[in-house]
Design a protein that fits this description.
single chain, about 325 residues, alpha+beta, 2 domains, 14 strands
């Protein structure tokens, strides 16, 4: 798996000319840039798809498709395509385009040093760091505007449909007593609560726990977590899922339970935060994010790598002395 990710990244790097590489590659130690992420419209560091040749754009998509599961790559591609749909709805006054997505590299594969990349633009942010044979890929943000495209009341396009439907199924499955615990506010926030904060700290968990749910509902809560983690290629998702303690999850809902009205939910665990918000544009504008408290941007992997490196150098100096 790691070999495939490195090969796809090398393929993109090899396609770049010298002046492009100057804009595309930054140091993995540039913590400020690595933590500076966003999901709103606007330019980003690195190279935009619109600045690249066709083969280079395909190489960027190849990087995404290697790290993401097939269904999540399809979601990401649909999210990017929606920029043109939204631009048409707005009359083109914001000049949106599906080439307005940027790629920035943090170091390059090869050798023992960490490296990574980010592919990002409106409603998409995938942050990858590789260190010592392990891969980190959070924050992982997907959004959609419009969230649903319909024809005579029937949905013809909804890339983040399951993110909503699984949570609604959980509310139905848990029954009225547990639902009263799960619904913690009548009004939904206007966006995901953590926004694009560079770090998120564990907050007091709220809502309902697996112990307060029947077995079918508790299993579905775990399935929702697995669904978000399965945005990654399954080998990577398996590694992430192995770190989850299902008994310590909390699920909470805010806002209306009626379809078509603003709603929000959150799943929390010791090293897990999932947020979903659909309030804007008459509840037709979705934001979703998966984050890890100590592991976003590969911070835990990088800290472990540099700590090991310092100890190795220290031992080497002592032995040589």
């Amino acid at each position: 798996m790691l070999h495939d990710v490195a090969d796809a990244t090398h393929h993109y790097i090899d396609s770049l000319a010298g002046d492009q590489r100057e804009h595309a590659i930054r140091a993995v130690t540039d913590d400020d840039l690595r933590h500076r992420w966003a999901y709103t419209p606007g330019t980003r560091p690195g190279l935009a798809l619109g600045e690249l040749r066709r083969d280079q754009r395909k190489a960027v998509h190849g990087m995404l498709a290697t790290v993401l599961s097939p269904h999540a790559y399809a979601q990401a591609a649909a999210v990017m395509a929606l920029e043109d749909v939204l631009d048409h709805r707005e009359g083109g006054h914001r000049d949106r385009h599906n080439n307005d997505y940027w790629t920035v590299l943090f170091g390059t594969p090869g050798g023992d040093e960490p490296w990574g990349w980010r592919v990002e633009g409106h409603h998409l942010s995938v942050n990858v760091v590789v260190a010592d044979g392990r891969v980190s890929a959070t924050p992982f943000f997907l959004g959609a505007n419009p969230a649903r495209v319909t024809y005579r009341g029937r949905v013809v396009g909804q890339p983040l449909r399951l993110e909503e439907e699984l949570a609604r199924e959980l509310l139905d499955r848990m029954g009225p007593t547990a639902r009263r615990l799960a619904v913690v506010a009548d009004t939904a926030p206007h966006d995901i609560r953590t926004g694009n904060a560079p770090r998120v700290s564990p907050s007091e968990p709220v809502g309902v726990t697996p112990a307060q749910l029947g077995k079918p509902a508790a299993e579905l809560l775990v399935d929702i977590v697995r669904f978000y983690l399965d945005r990654l290629a399954y080998e990577l998702a398996d590694e992430e899922f192995a770190q989850i303690d299902p008994d310590r999850l909390h699920f909470s809902w805010e806002g209306s339970l009626r379809r078509g009205e603003g709603h929000y939910y959150r799943v929390q665990g010791p090293e897990l935060l999932i947020e979903y918000d659909n309030t804007a544009n008459e509840a037709n504008h979705v934001h979703t994010v998966w984050r890890r408290h100590s592991g976003d941007f590969g911070d835990d992997l990088l800290a472990a790598h540099y700590d090991t490196s310092r100890h190795t150098v220290g031992r080497g100096v002592a032995q040589n002395g």
